[in-house]
Specification:
Strand content: under 5%
Shape: globular
Structural class: mainly alpha
Radius of gyration: 39 Å
Oligomer: single chain
Helix content: 55-70%
Largest sheet: none
Number of helices: 17
């Protein structure tokens, strides 16, 4: 009697009995009779892929986000070593900025002192608190000068600010590159003239003995002298500013116009838009961010009119029409040695400018523009 064959149960066999032993059947290694992979090899592949995923996940947990080589992040020491040439190049500019802009801010302490520049100095001058600021606010002449400064600024803002935009739009329509370069050079050249030369040119043109007055007298008309007319002074300084600095503003707006996509003009022309409609619907909307930014900066410098320009013409028209905050501080503070009063007026001027910038930037945000900084 033949011994009965014993059948052992394979633990890797599936429930339906379609599996094969680990060594495989006689049809091939790791495959059953139909040529399919066995459950054991499928399980090994699953465990291998799972192990690989877990190892990747563990490495991702060890490396902080944004610091690994694959994320492109580097430490500040590596960044400093990489950019050491640029850092060395900027060190002189940073040193000049600290020496001439930030360290002098410590001198504002004299605004709270009865400052004596000759004997006591900063360390020996007694503190008087806000007495210098009280003197400013109680000085009626200070408020008159402040109002006159704002009137001159508003006149220049209305008459001067739109002119560089108009010139940039005009230059942008010139097809000839040579003519365009010539126009830019003509309007940009006066920016390099000093205010002494600018005032002299206007004196020779519009003064009592100027060319215009002489020409009128030669033709039987009465001459005039615009350089000594107090009522015309704010328009005179605005005209001088336009002639001197309009070309400087043109450069900024031409750069903004160069970034406008020409396909927009072509699409507008295809839709039947003429030159004026293309300027209104394509060019001006492209200039709106730049206009808003420059307008905010211009409003922030409302009290920073050109000191040299006003001082050169102060005696011709009188202090009542030409006095601005800077010249008033110079005459009543620095020239008489009252440095505490001058420092207090300078702090007031800085705070007023900051408030103007913040207010103008808020208006820019309300109009949908970014301004100096974006709205969070």
């Amino acid at each position: 009697m033949k011994p009965r064959a014993t059948v052992t149960t394979d633990p890797d066999r599936t429930a339906d009995g379609a599996g094969a032993p680990a060594g495989g059947s006689g049809d091939g290694d790791g495959k059953d009779g139909s040529g399919n992979r066995t459950d054991r090899s499928r399980a090994i592949g699953t465990r291998g892929s799972r192990t690989a995923k877990e190892s990747k996940k563990g490495s991702a947990k060890k490396a902080p986000a944004g610091t690994g080589p694959q994320a492109g992040g580097i430490t500040w020491r590596q960044r400093l070593r990489r950019d050491r040439t640029l850092v060395l190049m900027t060190l002189p500019a940073i040193a000049l900025l600290l020496i001439f802009n930030y360290i002098p801010l410590l001198g504002n302490i004299v605004a709270f002192q009865d400052y004596d520049v000759y004997d006591l100095g900063i360390t020996g001058s007694p503190f008087v608190g806000f007495d210098n600021f009280t003197r400013i606010f109680e000085d009626y002449r200070f408020w008159e000068v402040l109002i006159n400064t704002l009137v001159i600024f508003i006149t220049q803002l209305v008459l001067f600010f739109p002119i560089p935009i108009a010139i940039a739009l005009l230059v942008n329509t010139i097809m000839s590159a040579r003519v365009r370069a010539w126009v830019q050079a003509v309007v940009y050249l006066p920016h390099f003239f000093s205010w002494v030369l600018v005032v002299t040119v206007f004196q020779q043109m519009f003064g009592g003995a100027g060319l215009v007055a002489q020409w009128l007298r030669e033709h039987g008309h009465e001459g005039f002298d615009l350089m000594t007319d107090p009522g015309f002074f704010k328009f005179l300084v605005s005209a001088q500013a336009v002639w001197k600095d309009a070309g400087w503003g043109v450069i900024v707006f031409l750069a903004a116009l160069a970034a406008v996509n020409t396909d927009l003009y072509e699409a507008a022309a295809v839709d039947g838009a003429g030159r004026w409609r293309r300027m209104w619907h394509v060019t001006l909307p492209a200039l709106r961010p730049v206009i808003a930014l420059l307008l905010v900066l211009r409003v922030g410098s409302a009290l920073n009119l050109d000191f040299e320009q006003i001082l050169l013409q102060r005696d011709q028209v009188g202090a009542g029409a030409s006095e601005i905050l800077d010249t008033y501080i110079w005459w009543t503070g620095i020239k008489t040695g009252d440095f505490g009063y001058a420092a207090a007026a300078g702090i007031f001027k800085g705070l007023f400018s900051v408030a103007m910038v913040l207010g103008a930037n808020k208006v820019a945000h309300m109009l949908g523009e970014q301004g100096v900084y974006s709205k969070k």
